[in-house]
Each structure stands twice: as C-alpha cells, then as structure tokens.
TrEMBL record:
<keyword id="KW-1133">Transmembrane helix</keyword>
<dbReference type="InterPro" id="IPR043137">
    <property type="entry name" value="GGT_ssub_C"/>
</dbReference>
<keyword id="KW-0378">Hydrolase</keyword>
<dbReference type="GO" id="GO:0006751">
    <property type="term" value="P:glutathione catabolic process"/>
</dbReference>
<feature type="binding site">
    <location>
        <position position="485"/>
    </location>
    <ligand>
        <name>L-glutamate</name>
    </ligand>
</feature>
<keyword id="KW-0808">Transferase</keyword>
<feature type="binding site">
    <location>
        <begin position="461"/>
        <end position="463"/>
    </location>
    <ligand>
        <name>L-glutamate</name>
    </ligand>
</feature>
<keyword id="KW-0012">Acyltransferase</keyword>
<feature type="transmembrane region" description="Helical">
    <location>
        <begin position="24"/>
        <end position="45"/>
    </location>
</feature>
<dbReference type="GO" id="GO:0036374">
    <property type="term" value="F:glutathione hydrolase activity"/>
</dbReference>
<comment type="similarity">
    <text>Belongs to the gamma-glutamyltransferase family.</text>
</comment>
<dbReference type="GO" id="GO:0005886">
    <property type="term" value="C:plasma membrane"/>
</dbReference>
<protein>
    <recommendedName>
        <fullName>Glutathione hydrolase</fullName>
        <ecNumber>2.3.2.2</ecNumber>
        <ecNumber>3.4.19.13</ecNumber>
    </recommendedName>
</protein>
<dbReference type="Pfam" id="PF01019">
    <property type="entry name" value="G_glu_transpept"/>
</dbReference>
<dbReference type="InterPro" id="IPR000101">
    <property type="entry name" value="GGT_peptidase"/>
</dbReference>
<feature type="binding site">
    <location>
        <position position="537"/>
    </location>
    <ligand>
        <name>L-glutamate</name>
    </ligand>
</feature>
<dbReference type="GO" id="GO:0000324">
    <property type="term" value="C:fungal-type vacuole"/>
</dbReference>
C-alpha cells in the first residue's frame, strides 16, 4: 500500500528536484555512518603497540602453501596420500558440463554461489564478485579483501586487464627490513595496501550486467559468513600447519584469531562449523555503501581499524595509503597461436612471461616430437620465461619489454646463437637471467563463462598462508604479507645473482607477481574457448603455459589437463620440479632416463599448483574442471 502511495506521487516536482535528491543522499550517508558506528566502534580503534620481533624465534619459517600439502594430513586419514597428488585416470565425476554457463573455483559452494548469480540474471563479471568474496571467506588462508589480485575480463568482445595488486605504503623503502629475513613475512611491516575490493568494483563498473546491484552480489556471502559453513579438509590441514609453524611459536598472535578455534580452544577440523560475524558486518557495510569507496575512506571505520591493528603490530601503513590506492585498468596482453587469440593479464603480472614462453614453444615445436623431445621443449620454454621474468618490475620501460618479448626477434637471437638445442639442456647462465627474483606464494584462481559468452579469470591472493598472520578481529579481515614479494638489497641467492633492482621497495610501488589469468578466443567463431589460471606462487606461469600446451598441442581434454602431473623449472634450482616422478614414469616409460641423457635432473616436490579452468568443446557446451586433486575444488554450471 505504501509503495502504491509513493508511486502516485513519484512524478511530483519535489521528488524530481535536486533538493530532494541531495537530501536523500545526505540522509542515506548519515544512516550509513550511524550504522558503521555500531558495526565497528571507533572508540576501540587505537591499540597499544606490540613488540613482535622480540617474540619471533630465529628459526621461524613460513610454509609454502602448496609444496608438501598432501603430506600434512594424519596417517589414518583416507585422503592422506591423495591431497596434492595428480591422477592419470581422473574420475569423470569431477568433470562438470554446462550447456550455457560454468564456474570453476577452489571451493564447491563458491562455484555454486556464482552459478546462482548467473541464474538470477547476472553475468560473468557479477558472478566473479560474489565468487571472489566467497572464496575469501571460506579459504581465507589464500585470499580475501585484505589482499589483491589480477582480473582478465571479456564482455561482448571487449577485453580488459585489471591490476589490483597491493601497493607499498608511502613510508616504505628498500632498506626497511634491515637484516631481518622474517619481518617481510609476518607482522605489520609485511602488509601492503589491499587492492582486491577496488579491482572488483572496477570490474562491476566496467563489465557488470546492470541487472544486479553491488549489494545483491554481496548478500549471499554476508549470509554465508553470518550463518556459517563447514571446515573443509584442506582448511584443517592449513590450520594445523600454520599453528605448528607460527601460532604455537608466537602465542601472542593467537589472541585475536577467533574463528579458527572451537569453544574448547582446539583448532577447527573438518566438519566443524565456522562463523565469521564480524566479517559479515564489514561486508554488509561495504555492500550498503554501493561501492568500494568506504573500504578506502581514510576517515571511515574500516581503514581506521585496519591501520590501528597493522600499526600495533609494527606496521607503517596509514590512512593516506588507503586513500591513495589505485588500480590499473588497461588493455590485456595479446598473442596468437594457430587460429586462437590469447588474452592475458597486463600490469605487474607475469602475463608477458607466459606469452613469451608460449611463443618460444610454438617456434620450436614439431608435431612429430616424441614424448621426450616434447617435454624437453616444454622445459626449455619454462627456463626462458623464467629468465624473462627477471627483467620485470613496476618500471617505466614496460612498453619496451612488451614490444621486445611479444615479437619473435628474441627467439631468433636465441636460436642463431645456439642457446637452444634438441639434444641437451644448458646450465642456468645460458639463459641469461638478469637478476634474482623472489618467489611469490599462495593465491586462489577461478574461471567463469556465462551464457552470453562473457568470461572472467581472476587470480587473488594474500601471499603466504593467512598473509601477514595479522587478523583484525573487529572487521574480520586478514591482512596480506605482500611486501615479501619485493626484492631486498644485499640479499643475493646461492648462485650470486643479485636481487632485482626493478623489484626493490618504493613508496606506492607494486611487487612483481607470477599470476597470469588467461582467456583464449576461437578466431573462427569469435567465442570464448578456454579460461585458465592457477594458484601456487612462482609455479603459476609455468602451470598455465603447460595447460595451454597440453590442450592445444597434445589435444588433452580438460579433465586430463587439470589432473595431470605438473612440471616446473625456474632456472634455479637447476632441476625439473615434478609433482610425482612415479606417475610421470608410469605414463611415459623411460622418459626420466631419456631426459637425464639430455642433462636434465629431477626433484620430486608434491603438489605444485592448483588450476581451475573452463573449456568450450565442439558441441558448444562448456566443460568445467576444478582442481579436486590438489585443493578439493569443484565446478558448477547449467
């Protein structure tokens, strides 16, 4: 009845006037401010400083989020020999087929949540916002709005790259860690300015459908955090490992971590119920604001709380850093293989390294190559893309690098100088790396294709497991430790490669990233053919490269591509990293000895990366496969 009365008077001049509109804006803003006072009380914002360094043992280590994950479960657990293991005969139950749309992510319920957004009239960009927020809630060890990421989005043929990488605080400098090797990995000094939320809002503005509001995309995730969800096996494993390595050794950190413990003080385990009401309140505040602005408002309750917490743990990040944060929205990097166009992330990502490695493989590949030579050429591609990555950084001459390494001239030089051979590999000096680079960690990737052929690939991260290990319990936000992805002066590696001057810390600078979310388009049909990306630190770029190579050169189906044992080489150490040598030898008998005869050596590592992809097949339907084998992901579509 009330709405009917209002509709009768909606055309009244007062309701159409600027006075009414301005009054409505002022009233809405006042309500939002009052609401925020109840959500996050400014009276409790200021925290006393904590001397974290004095409480960190000298032998503290931070775990690699992927290497050895499968070995961390209990011996009586039926999954103990399965988490993190590749599979040559993957079950078809992990292949999801959609006639119209598909979502592939690390978390089954997040894939389904994204599908529901599509069914409500949202598009791929809309669904990406919900999925990203969902993953950051459930798999909070690997992503969240306290971190950053990269987005590649295709909407009605328009493709954009969004660099939402974290930025160094304004007071940061290259000597800020002194002789400490741990303060860039844990505590307030490791925190960079988060970018994920601004990137998601850019995506919403640039490619959103307009059918669903910003608030509507948040609502299912708010409800999820408020009502709760079950702890997964992967989250149990991660919690146990981080408790062993960090929380048990730095007990002062435990006080604020409310959602990872049961009421009896024990860590959550598989099946336990997790609720995050404070995080739900924060997401609701952002949703009601209608944009990401309140997250970066230097006078707002979120920034004040995050800054207070970070500074209490020794951080230098301040309100102005949030106010000054910006994303880079630009054209993607583009290349072609055969009858397909490849779009990958621009900015400080490793999209350029991916394309250069792919172009190198495409140049040396021959369809008559046997398994040994095919694998040798793949590894040589990894080594060259690793060399090229050492030239990258948040630098002014990026356009020159793009021009140089998207052409084939550099490959011509390599071949003419005898720096590639079918008959042998070479030591690391042959590949001419310019500098040592740090190894990024963590991350989560998801892929989406909607029924109008729009597509999004997003890779998001807080870096190491649970980022900086600094959790702001008022907002429920876990803050990243992305400062660890910068290079530090006077820290050379074992081969005397000096740290990259291009990746040194500087105020407002972004650290180099290994991510490369990618969309491949079929030129003949102008349709999205493949959306792929990976999580797994420095191994991401090689993982995406081999997924593309196995799909388009070896004609692997998507299920086999994702489940297959992955390889990696980054020049140093001078070995092929292999998830499971036994599985590789089973699939290709004699390949280990054949590659050793070419001077290759092997290092078995366990899980290297987790990949989630979507492939369009000949009948036009979409195949979605999430990495169940390494991260218990599942896709969902319709």
């Amino acid at each position: 009845m009330g709405s009917e009365k209002f509709s009768k008077h909606a055309d009244h001049p007062y309701f159409q006037s600027n006075i009414f509109r301005k009054g409505l804006v002022i009233f809405s803003t006042a309500c939002l401010i009052i609401y925020s006072l109840f959500v996050i009380s400014p009276a409790t914002i200021k925290l006393p400083p904590i001397d974290l360094l004095s409480q960190i043992p000298h032998d503290l280590t931070r775990t690699d989020p992927y290497l050895g994950l499968h070995a961390q479960t209990n011996s009586d657990d039926p999954l103990s020999d399965k988490i993190g293991q590749p599979d040559l005969n993957p079950s078809s139950k992990h292949l999801h087929i959609g006639k119209k749309a598909m979502v592939a992510s690390d978390v089954p319920l997040c894939s389904t949540m994204g599908k529901e957004i599509l069914l409500q009239g949202g598009n791929a960009a809309d669904a990406a916002i919900t999925v990203a927020l969902c993953i950051g809630s459930v798999n909070s060890h690997s992503s969240g709005i306290g971190g950053g990421g990269f987005i590649i989005s295709r909407n009605q043929g328009d493709v954009v790259s969004i660099d939402a990488r974290e930025m160094a605080p304004g007071l940061a400098h290259k000597h800020m860690y002194g002789d400490s090797f741990v303060l860039s990995k844990i505590g307030g000094l490791s925190i960079a300015v988060p970018g994920e939320l601004k990137g998601l809002y850019d995506l919403f503005q640039k490619h959103g459908s307009g059918n669903l509001t910003w608030k509507q995309l948040f609502e299912p995730v708010i409800e999820l955090n408020r009502k709760g969800f079950q702890c997964s096996k992967v989250f149990e494993v991660v919690l146990a490992k981080e408790y062993e390595l960090v929380l048990s050794k730095v007990p002062v950190l435990k006080k604020s971590w409310d959602f990872i413990f049961n009421s009896d003080g024990k860590l959550k385990t598989e099946g336990d119920w997790i609720t995050r009401p404070n995080y739900a309140n924060t997401l609701e505040l952002i949703a009601n604001n209608g944009s990401s602005a309140i997250f970066y408002d230097p006078q707002g309750p979120i920034v004040k709380s995050l800054v207070s917490t970070a500074q209490a743990w020794g951080g230098i990040i301040n309100e102005h850093d949030f106010a000054n944060y910006k994303t880079n929205v630009e054209s993607p990097l583009v290349s072609k293989i055969n009858d397909y166009t490849i779009y990958t992330s621009n900015g400080i990502s490793s999209g350029l390294a991916l394309l250069s490695g792919l172009n190198f493989f495409n140049r040396v590949y021959n369809s008559s190559d046997d398994d040994t030579l095919f694998t040798h050429k793949l590894i040589e591609s990894f080594k060259w893309l690793s060399s090229i990555r050492t030239r990258f950084g948040d630098i002014d001459n990026r356009e020159v690098l793009i021009k140089n390494f998207t052409s084939n001239d550099w490959i011509d030089d390599i071949l003419s100088q005898g720096k590639y051979s079918d008959k042998q590999t070479f030591d690391w000096k042959n590949y001419d790396p310019k500098y040592d680079i740090v190894e990024p960690q963590g991350t989560s990737h998801f892929s989406i294709v909607d029924e109008n052929d729009n597509a999004v690939g997003m890779t998001t991260t807080v870096n190491l497991l649970f980022g900086s290990m600094i959790y702001d319990s008022r907002t429920g936000i876990i803050l990243n430790d992305e400062m660890d992805d910068f290079s530090q002066p006077n820290v050379s590696n074992a081969f005397n490669l000096t740290p990259s001057i291009y990746n040194f810390i500087y105020p407002g600078k972004r650290p180099l990233s290994s991510t490369a979310p990618t969309i491949i388009v079929n030129d003949a049909t102008n349709s999205t053919d493949f959306v792929i990306g990976a999580a797994g630190g420095s191994r991401i770029t090689s993982a995406v490269l081999q997924a593309i190579v196995r799909t388009y050169y070896h004609n692997f189906d998507l299920l086999s591509t994702i489940a297959y044992p992955r390889l990696h080489h980054q020049l140093i150490p001078e070995s092929i990293m292999c998830e499971n040598v036994t599985v590789l030898e089973t699939e290709h008998p004699g390949i280990l000895d054949s590659l050793k005869n070419l001077n290759h050596s092997f290092l078995e590592t366990g899980a290297l990366t987790a990949m989630n992809g979507i492939k369009r097949v000949k009948d036009g339907s979409l195949h979605g496969v999430s990495d169940w084998w390494r991260k218990r992901g599942e896709s969902d579509g319709y």
